[in-house]
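TASK: fixed-backbone design
INPUT:
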């Protein structure tokens, strides 16, 4: 009873819950699920852009993209480490991902068809990730909140990187501008889907808000992202593919069209354009890397014995 009251007081006072503190089983399970899903998204998210490293248009673009994809691997590591403080083993989480028992962000189940996609992913996908993640710097679980501070700094660099690439393409040829527009047309709606189902259908939101794991609802964050993106699109000179997108002075926000929730649920349930390919690639990489893990473990054991 005392422990439970202490936990509730910690959360209510906006203090952080730390690994050794008592916490309800549901709180721990919710965090493990959310952090694992987040970690998997960082790692799977390396694939769509990694696809273009060998075909970057210049050495400069290759170095930038390589660094960006490497950052995402780092984000995955911080997050798996945060999950470990809750008793969730990284190996176990990876196995669940490969077996399809844990999810990752559905955005990464869409293919990257042109180099403009590298810019649009930086601008819109990393941009949506920032909207989702900045409030998580104040999430109630300490190790998760601290990991997010560094992740967010790097994500905002990624977004600028994408925007700069698009600005360069938009000041290029007619064909380059058309590539950017075509890419925006494909990524805009899936980016809006990154905030998850509408609040009315989001089963975990209410409890997560009470525990201060989540700080804003899906629809609030989605609105924030739309309002942020509209002036950026105008500055870039691209059209967002939504005829219903219009400023609503009364609400002080942009109204926008209905998301295709049938597509959203299809992709979430595994029937997106690249779901099978992404998981298969991850499975193969994990198996191919087994010798590295074995060698590292053997080396650590040897050092321990020597000490
Ligand atoms: Fe990331
Ligand atoms: Fe990123």
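OUTPUT:
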């Amino acid at each position: 009873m005392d422990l439970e009251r202490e936990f509730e007081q910690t959360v209510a006072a906006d203090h952080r819950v730390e690994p050794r503190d008592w916490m309800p089983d549901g709180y721990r399970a919710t965090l493990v699920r959310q952090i694992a899903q987040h970690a998997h998204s960082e790692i799977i998210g390396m694939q769509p852009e990694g696809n273009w490293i060998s075909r970057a248009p210049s050495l400069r673009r290759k170095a930038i993209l390589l660094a960006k994809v490497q950052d995402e691997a780092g984000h995955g590591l911080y997050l798996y480490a945060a999950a470990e403080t809750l008793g969730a083993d990284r190996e176990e989480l990876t196995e669940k991902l490969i077996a399809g028992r844990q999810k990752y962000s559905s955005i990464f189940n869409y293919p990257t068809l042109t180099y403009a996609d590298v810019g649009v992913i930086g601008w819109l996908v990393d941009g949506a990730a920032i909207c989702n993640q900045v409030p998580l710097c104040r999430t109630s679980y300490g190790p998760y909140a601290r990991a997010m501070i560094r992740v967010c700094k790097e994500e905002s660099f990624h977004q600028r990187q994408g925007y700069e690439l698009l600005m360069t393409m938009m000041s290029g040829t007619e064909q380059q501008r058309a590539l950017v527009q075509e890419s925006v047309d494909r990524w805009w709606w899936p980016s809006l889907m990154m905030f998850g189902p509408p609040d009315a259908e989001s089963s975990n939101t209410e409890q997560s808000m009470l525990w201060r794991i989540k700080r804003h609802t899906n629809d609030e964050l989605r609105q924030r992202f739309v309002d942020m993106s509209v002036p950026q699109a105008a500055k870039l000179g691209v059209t967002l593919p939504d005829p219903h997108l219009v400023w609503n002075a009364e609400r002080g926000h942009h109204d926008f069209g209905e998301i295709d929730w049938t597509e959203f649920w299809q992709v979430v349930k595994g029937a997106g354009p690249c779901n099978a390919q992404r998981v298969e690639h991850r499975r193969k990489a994990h198996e191919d890397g087994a010798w590295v893990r074995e060698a590292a473990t053997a080396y650590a054991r040897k050092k321990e014995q020597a000490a």
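COMMENT: The mean pLDDT is 95.
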